[in-house]
Fold these 3 entries.
Entry 1:
Amino acid sequence: DSGVTQTPKHLITATGQRVTLRCSPRSGDLSVYWYQQSLDQGLQFLIQYYNGEERAKGNILERFSAQQFPDLHSELNLSSLELGDSALYFCASSVDFGTSAQETQYFGPGTRLLVL
Amino acid sequence: LAKTTQPISMDSYEGQEVNITCSHNNIATNDYITWYQQFPSQGPRFIIQGYKTKVTNEVASLFIPADRKSSTLSLPRVSLSDTAVYYCLVGDRGGGFKTIFGAGTRLFVKA
């Protein structure tokens, strides 16, 4: 158990809908990262937050957005969903300032999203 | 960003030592090298991290030559449960921080 929690574990929805994925980082961790992993694909970095502020953006679609709240939990919002958005979405957290990949990231169990 | 190159897949047998090499020719002076392990449908798990020479923990060893353009993850006496994807990452010290996992190496351990 990494200490990172994600809800829900599974989500089934229809095209065009909007969903929200939630992540609670490890106690004391200030940085939260979101990743997408499609079937047989590697992990794609989406976005990172540090202490409530956006730190870095990867290949995140405009239909996707995220935020980190004062209690440090984070939400990833996916809207106008398409079939191709079906994937595992992972959240990770790290303790430091998130300025380099040398930080250890602790990953949650993921949310499996299926868009029908 | 320092790009990494790893073999796509490797096979091994239980009890053998497995060495997975990662190339990172454009590694920056302050970059560290980190390896993660991922089982199917699970999030990646940190294995080991190093800057130069050799690092060893209870799980693996990491060998980094003087030029740091490559690194080798060594898994001693693998078991069936070591079947997973192994990712090599190199730190990005640019203006923003983006984690590049790459395709990883699929290790399959046979009985």
Entry 2:
Amino acid sequence: GQQVMQIPQYQHVQEGEDFTTYCNSSTTLSNIQWYKQRPGGHPVFLIQLVKSGEVKKQKRLTFQFGEAKKNSSLHITATQTTDVGTYFCAGPNTGFQKLVFGTGTRLLVSP
Amino acid sequence: EAGVAQSPRYKIIEKRQSVAFWCNPISGHATLYWYQQILGQGPKLLIQFQNNGVVDDSQLPKDRFSAERLKGVDSTLKIQPAKLEDSAVYLCASSLMGGSSYEQYFGPGTRLTVT
């Protein structure tokens, strides 16, 4: 079945450092979504990318969709302690009926 | 706008017991999802409803799990009998419509511990 892998699994940074997580799919994706889950919380939608090579920014967060639409990345500039959590990418399955969530990247930010 | 409501928030049961979870989605959302999230993993879809019909239940262990959304609004997920490996957070989510291009809104989840 379809697999959505993320690397790294875990990253610990000092506040102010940059952070990037990468998402790779075994199949071409029509779109990709990103979610953030705070410790003890539930996933919260961040953004959706649809076009090949698309880049979207939300303040310090930059999201990119690969040219081949099989990978995506999330980059956080100058991390803050509020960025702590697990970041998931999610892409559609072959039939486009449901989302398949990635393995997640857990970010820890030390002050 | 009220979010997705779930209850209970926590549940501890012994193996072989039964348990039920309840979810009330955002008003007007046609699609409702139940996910299982094991510690350290991403959410895994158990079942997806479009109104009161099942769209996908391919990963639902049907010998012990059941779910219903009788009036196309709120939903219940039941486990009977529970196994140790069912210990997880059960998340309910809803979206305006089905398909993978719609943003999903998640509830706070129910943390189940099976001892």
Entry 3:
Amino acid sequence: AQKVTQAQTEISVVEKEDVTLDCVYETRDTTYYLFWYKQPPSGELVFLIRRNSFDEQNEISGRYSWNFQKSTSSFNFTITASQVVDSAVYFCALSVLTDSWGKLQFGAGTQVVVTP
Amino acid sequence: NAGVTQTPKFRVLKTGQSMTLLCAQDMNHEYMYWYRQDPGMGLRLIHYSVGEGTTAKGEVPDGYNVSRLKKQNFLLGLESAAPSQTSVYFCASRIQGLNTEAFFGQGTRLTVV
């Protein structure tokens, strides 16, 4: 069985501070896929990034960056110079190759609150 | 581009009432899913479908039924609503293949009193 742990329930920062969201996953599969989704106050889920288990290259996209480390089973997400619009719940999710139907296992989510 | 559309957006039910949530996607996706979101628990899979006429149970299927008579629609039914089914329900769809993201509807907030 797969498991995704987001230990941080809520993180509060002041605008322009950096914030890092932790995601730790568990799976026995050697091929798997990790995702981050954002849920703003409006409620919809917005896809942010996907990473394959065989691609450990870290990625930067604007103010967002992701640090994937297989050795520690972590896929952490950093928002640099946070803005009020970054206030949202962020979910980390996992799917595995042996599950042909692509079901996603979600973490509990981390609420990010950015104050001016 | 509509993407994934859920109907209704809000609903209040009395215990024991029944209702159906409709999910429609216009992206010709094979896979569709119903999740429920509860505080502190993330999203949990209720049922899913990998094609027209096929459905399967997810992590928390009890009290729910589903049907996928048309490829673009995935219905979630509550035959006898219970307060424990108060939640936000999300439908998602994705193209066949594991390395693809799921697209989500805007959610349905259901309250059972």
